[in-house]
Amino acid sequence: MKQVRTAIVGMGIGRPNGKAIAKNPRGRVVALCDLVEDRMKDFAKELPEPPKLYTDYKAMCRDKEIDAVMVGTPNQWHVPIALEAVRRGKHVLITKPLADALAPARRLVAAQEKAGVVGMMSLSMRFSGSTLYLGQMARRGDFGELYYARARSIRRSGIPDWNLGFIEKGGGAFRDMGVHVLDSAWWILGMPRPVSVTGVAGAKFGPKGRGYWDFRQPPKSFWRKYGSDDYAGGFIRFESGAGLQCESFWASHQAPEHQIELFGTQAGARYSPLTLYRTVDGAPHDITVNLPKGADPWDLIAGHFIDCILDGKPCDAPLRHGLIVQEMMEAMLRSAEAGREVRLDK
Ligand SMILES: NC(=O)c1ccc[n+]([C@@H]2O[C@H](COP(=O)([O-])OP(=O)(O)OC[C@H]3O[C@@H](n4cnc5c(N)ncnc54)[C@H](O)[C@@H]3O)[C@@H](O)[C@H]2O)c1
After folding, report:
1. pLDDT by residue (tens digit) across 221-233?
2. Ligand 1 centroid distance, CA of 263 (Å)
3. Which of 30, 202, 207, 322 has its CA 20 to 30 A from that of 53?
4. 4-117 and 129-295+327-343: same fold?
5. Superfamily assignment of 129-295+327-343 in CATH?
């Protein structure tokens, strides 16, 4: 195989993923799949070759001229579609979060690893310049011991109103936005093993028709179906002794922020604006890092996915990482429901 013949499922976030794959000399987008045909026809215009169009993912997965499937549907469809693909021997690239719950996430990772196909998470924040830069500093030991981190994603009025999947069971703020900051912070910390999680969560805006994207109000028939969280926050304790405070708000009376703060014995850092903190000769040094415009995260994701398939490169963001992040997220939500700490080391 010299080029990876890829199908894209879901014409929202599937588009930047698909464009990056099509742009890569070793990638091709040969098929699209969505329930809405017009969305596929619209995206097809941006592709270098006319793709096949499918409205049924099962039929698409039977197509022998497809090597890999990028899954960009609402959370509730990630596992059914990816499971069908891996059972048919296709490699999968899945948008965040891995799944809408823990049990399907586990089923999928077991099936993917058994099938021996590449399974990768498409994580735009993990592959962003700032996350990669901080991760590289951490791996080199520049922070000393990283013993604490805070990660949060805060919107003022940003509940997605363009797809019911976001607000129904299996959606929610923490699986939508919390997942980005949680995954990136955990990755920078060196992916320590989580041992316990305690959290609170709820829905204070969405079920009342408030807090939707850009202060819009969708029809009542939409927001009456609210079945997930619109905020969640709590604390994760790792086997290493490190702690991570993580929060996500789709709507709030707060300034919007997408942030990670790192506390190390030699230095600290902040994700946005990218800043390093250390002490030199008894004086605090606060350093602003002006990263040159590097590669686009979507291009990095597509390129790495293709390298893993064609060159057998070990995957930097395997589905198993998505599973561990899902374990932490679901524990946070379970802890909120149960009103007590949830252990993950049993
Ligand atoms: N930065 C990121 O990585 C990022 C950004 C936005 C969204 N996302 C993720 O992408 C997913 C989708 O979000 P979105 O904003 O693109 O939503 P969207 O509504 O814009 O697009 C989803 C598409 O999937 C299609 N679809 C739904 N069920 C399907 C099925 N069974 N078979 C085929 N197609 C189906 C819908 O018709 C729709 O066109 C979510 O899981 C979200 O978390 C990731």
Report:
1. 999 999 999 999 9
2. 35
3. 322
4. no
5. Dihydrodipicolinate Reductase; domain 2 (3.30.360.10)
Amino acid at 47: L
Q: Residues 6 or more apart from 285 whose CB is under 8 A from it? A: 276, 277, 278, 279
Residue 123 CA to ligand 1 centre (angstroms): 14
* Fold that domain 4-117 belongs to in CATH: Rossmann fold (3.40.50)
Given a cut of 70, the residues of the chain with pLDDT beneath it are 1
Rounded distance from Cα 94 to ligand 1 centre (Å):
11
The model's pTM is: 0.97
Given the CA of residue 33, which atom of ligand 1 is nearest to it? 33
Residues contacting ligand 1 via CB (< 6 Å): 9-13, 33-36, 39, 57, 72-75, 77, 95-96, 124, 162-163, 176
Domain ranges of the chain: 4-117, 129-295+327-343
Bridge partners (DSSP) listed for residue 5: 28
CA-proximal residue: ligand 1, atom 13 (nearest): 74
Whole-number pLDDT of residue 165: 97
State both tokens at 332. Answer: 């946070």
Q: Is 241 left (phi over 0), alpha (psi -120 to 50) or beta?
A: left
Cα 166 to ligand 1 centre (Å): 9
DSSP line for 113-169? HHHT--EEEE-TTTTSHHHHHHHHHHHHTTTSSEEEEEEEEE-SB-B--S-GGGTST
Task: Give me the phi and psi of 237, to 5 degrees please.
Answer: -105, 135
Task: Please confirm whether the linkage preceding 25 is cis (ω < 30° from 0).
Answer: no
